[in-house]
Amino acid sequence: MGVDIETFNADWLKAWSDKDTERLVAFYSEDTVYMDPQTAGGLKGRDALRTYLQDLFGATPEMVYVPEAVWAIEGGFCGRWICTVGPDGAGGKLRGFDLVLLRDGEIAHNEVYVHQLPA
Questions:
Q1: CA-based nearest residue to 78, from 109, 37, 46, 57
Q2: What is the DSSP pairing of strand 63-73 with strand 76-85?
Q3: Around Cβ 75, how many Cβ atoms within 10 Å?
């Protein structure tokens, strides 16, 4: 595949934690497809993703994503993570799972599945 998925995943999740929109969209291809629970119909392209992320990051508290496991699959990887929401975890914790398909070292397709962890 040519990409160190452990490093790629950790760097990508750090950009999510930092709410760094420009660094984050640079991980995605120009024609990327992105889906999460808020965008079930999906978003297409970096510009749509950038707009979504700017709105999302402006409306959400601090969120720290930590990789939990990464598995290589044909064309990409699946990654599971834990997210601590709010200062000192005041907003609880989430566990998420990403399906990531790569093309030329960029994310061409990303589906996000997430659920609240019990307190």
A1: 109
A2: antiparallel
A3: 12
Structure tokens at 75: 């064309």
Backbone angles phi, psi at 88, to 5 degrees: 55, 25
Contact yes or no for 66/80 (Cβ under 8 A): no
- pTM: predicted TM-score of the whole model, two decimal places: 0.94
Query: How far are the Cα atoms of 45, 71, 109 from residue 75, in angstroms, in the given order?
Result: 19, 11, 10
Residue 1 clears pLDDT 60, i.e. is over it: no
Model confidence over 2-26: pLDDT tens digits?
899 999 999 999 999 999 999 999 9
Taken as a whole, the chain contains a residue count of 119
